[in-house]
UniProtKB/TrEMBL annotation:
Transmembrane spans: none
InterPro entries in alphabetical order: Cell_wall_metabolism_enzyme, Dup_hybrid_motif, M23ase_b-sheet_dom
Highest classification ranks of the organism: Bacteria, Pseudomonadati, Bacteroidota, Cytophagia, Cytophagales
A Pfam family it matches: Peptidase_M23
Record GO terms (molecular function): metalloendopeptidase activity
The protein, known as: Peptidase family M23
Length: 224
């Protein structure tokens, strides 16, 4: 366990990022979900109907999961397969699948590190990255697939209080053309990245990136 993961594990608790009262159901987007091997989900409306209608039982649950998953769903999206020698399929965050417009709350005190509209099919769409300090350690959280309105009134260095409503889940196609969900990721070191950071990596790079991006469950504690 990394030093950051241990620090997060010891923290008594974080504010909930999503507070809509729905129970959670873990979703599987690997080859173990045999539905994904036979369905064409390249059209976002079909993908959304499958997630919310079937996987989430007519939207009765929030979906969650995906950290470290080797996902087959990316085969429909050139954003992840453009590099034919190193296609990306290992997911580095946790997704929370719920309605577009759902408010999002900061899990702990933060400042805005950066933000951007990553406007490509299959990309993050509107994205916010927050910087946090905990017990003298600085780290970052990334929020992808937001609404465009989430980027209004932001500036780098803006203070965000723990529990503050700072963004909302976006609709497709403005969210990168995905069924509505939040991509939530912890990052130890942003390097030179601003407004963006890899959320999916090639399998050969997974040890490096999974160490750089600890399990978001240390903050979310959905399984607790």
């Amino acid at each position: 366990m990394s030093e950051l993961a241990e620090l997060l594990r010891r923290h008594p608790g974080f504010c909930a990022i999503v507070e809509n009262g729905k129970p959670y159901r873990k979703l599987d987007f690997t080859a173990a979900n045999t539905d994904l091997l036979t369905r064409d989900l390249s059209e976002t409306v079909d993908f959304s109907d499958y997630v919310f209608g079937e996987m989430l039982s007519e939207n009765k649950f929030n979906g969650f999961g995906g950290y470290g998953e080797d996902r087959v769903i990316y085969r429909h999206r050139k954003h992840f397969t453009a590099d034919t020698e190193k296609p990306r399929s290992i997911h580095l965050g946790i997704d929370i699948w719920t309605d577009a417009g759902t408010p999002l709350y900061a899990p702990l005190d933060a400042t805005v590190h950066s933000f951007a509209f990553n406007d490509h099919y299959g990309d993050y769409g509107p994205t916010i990255i927050l910087s946090h300090e905990l017990a003298g350690t600085t780290f970052f959280t990334l929020y992808g697939h937001l609404s465009l309105s989430s980027l209004e009134g932001l500036w780098e260095g803006k203070n965000i209080n723990a529990g503050e409503h700072f963004a909302s889940i976006g609709p497709y196609p403005e969210n990168g053309d995905w069924p509505p969900h939040l991509h939530f990721q912890i990052i130890r070191d942003m390097g030179n990245h601003t407004g963006d950071f890899p959320g999916v990596c090639n399998a050969t790079d997974s040890d490096y990136y999974l160490d750089l991006c600890p399990d978001p469950e240390w903050i979310l504690r959905i399984n607790a």
